[in-house]
Fold:
Amino acid sequence: MGDDYIIKIDRVTGDDPFEIDETEAVVTVDPTRGDWRDSKAELKEYWREEAKRAFSESAFELYLSIRASKGDVDEVLAFFDSILSPSQSSMLEEAYHLSKYFDNFNVDSGEEYERRGKLGDKYGSAAQNVPSLCSAGYFEKHGLFRDLYGQLSDSSTQNEDFQDLFDDLVRHRPFVIFVRGESKLGTDELRRRVSQNAAHLDELPVDIDYLHVRGMGGGPKEKISDLKGRLDEEGAKQMSEINRKENGPNELVLAIDTDSLA
Structure:
């Protein structure tokens, strides 16, 4: 089972949390199955015997995820590779693969923190923010970053201007606030950050109409709902929606019209 095999992250119907179709050369892995971690050793051994490759526990999952997400990453890089600097493009590629790994596998917070840290060590601390932006779809077709590149089309230095904008947005993330499960942010602090981010958006050379506040799990969703109530009282225009995740808890996304903020 070498590199000619296609890897898919998807639901499986058999007794095992993975299926191997040797005729079509496809391996389908379902990391949401409760017996995935117990059966992973069997798949690893099969892989070792067929491809003569051995992996550590987390490295094997990351390898599967990278193989499975190659098509998605190639599509993103097809747009951004010629636009970004070589370092930015390389960082985006690695961050996108990491985001798929975090999304598809139940990666514990310690490993996620470590892998984000290594990305930051390699490309600068702001790179640690990028996997979350990838998971949220900001680089995909019809995503924010592609729209922003189009807004700079009248510039004679479009790519250079976009590279500067990319660095600013990745470092400060003025267009989004992620509310984490361990976050101790209260409604007052969240409201202050909304104002702070909105002020940053006003200074940009492009138009970003909505500021997103995103969170998964009970605690973050409650905090976002409380913020929405506060903004409703102030008369702000906003929309909320559920972003349904295939592997993991659904995400609540609050989109705030920054022009309507008091």
Notes: The two ends are 60 Å apart (CA to CA). The chain has ten helices and seven strands. Strands lie at 6-9, 18-21, 26-29, 176-179, 210-216, 238-243, 251-257. The chain has a mean pLDDT of 88.
